[in-house]
Amino acid sequence: MDVTAIIKDSLRYPLSDWKKILILGIIIVISDLLSVFQSLGVTNKDLIPFLVVVGFLIGLLVNGYLFRILRSSLDGHNELPKFNKWISMFYDGFKVFTTFIAYLIVPPVVILFLLISLMGIDFTFFTPIWGTLGINPLYLVTSEIFPGIVNFLAISYDIFAELSLLVLLFVFTITPIFLMAIANMAYEGEFSAAFRLHEILDEIGCIGWGNLIKWYLATGILFLILFIIGNIIGYLFDFLNPILVSVSLLLTLIPYSYMYYARAVALFYMPD
């Protein structure tokens, strides 16, 4: 397992086609329109729910294309895949999102919910939700349910400061399993393959758990470095035009980083 070779290949891979970096960047910008509008000072309550839904749906296309990179790389291709078959890409993105929820959202939320329940804490911060029947469901989700969940997480983190660290440790530990689950789904071509834990763990065992930890830390640190560079650039050029700088990063560095990591996951899963 040559982690250095994987990183070098993954860093070069997105540069094979700058046009596709920009196309993915445009999709990312559209998915992040809510942040752009908020930066412009737009606070229209009717517009925000629409932007949340648009951002979520377009974000599935981002996930779908990254999944396509995984599958293409596992098939032995060294060029960025095409942007076509959009419905299929959207469906793939939904499968990735569902797997993400199953692995990285549901377990820690359930654990925190049970711990808070055992402490005898009530959930009155959810009561506004029960009295909103008849309201536009889109508005209900964005104005009541999401804030309620955020409030729930905030309370749990305030009360269980040490336990929240355990939850973060859980997320940090389970993330490489999640990535291998996505790779297994791409390799097998079946959604259910993402949840065949025995099969996934066997594959990791063949590759080596030590190699997994080494790869995870090395590629993850470099991924974070790319984002730190983006933040530094944004800070240094903030005096010019914050919106322009932010959009420029979303068009270039962010899609490049995503492509790099998707490629790295594929090369680790099938290094030969």
Structural features, described:
The chain has a domain at 3-75 and 84-100 and 173-269. It is 78% helix and 0% strand. The chain contains 12 helices and no strands. Helix 4 packs across helix 7 (137-159) and helix 5 (86-118) crosses helix 7. It starts with a helix and ends with a helix. Mean pLDDT is 80; it is low at 125-145.
Summed up, what is this model?
The protein is mostly helical and 272 residues long.
Keywords:
single chain, 272 residues, mainly alpha, 78% helix
Q: What is the N-to-C order of secondary-structure elements (H for helix, E for strand)? A: HHHHHHHHHHHH
Secondary structural class: mainly alpha
The poorly predicted ranges are 125-145
Q: Which value, in Å, is the CA radius of gyration?
A: 20 Å
Task: Report on the biggest sheet.
Answer: none
Total beta strands: 0
Mean pLDDT: 80
Number of H/I helices: 12
> What form results from the Cα inertia axes?
globular
Approximately how much beta-strand content do the residues carry? under 5%
Helix content: over 70%
How many angstroms separate the termini? Answer: 9 Å
List the helices and strands and how they pair.
Blueprint: H1 3-12, H2 18-31, H3 33-39, H4 47-74, H5 86-118, H6 127-130, H7 137-159, H8 161-188, H9 197-207, H10 209-236, H11 242-251, H12 253-269
Helix pairs in contact: 1-12, 2-4, 2-11, 2-12, 4-5, 4-7, 4-8, 4-12, 5-7, 5-8, 7-8, 8-9, 10-12
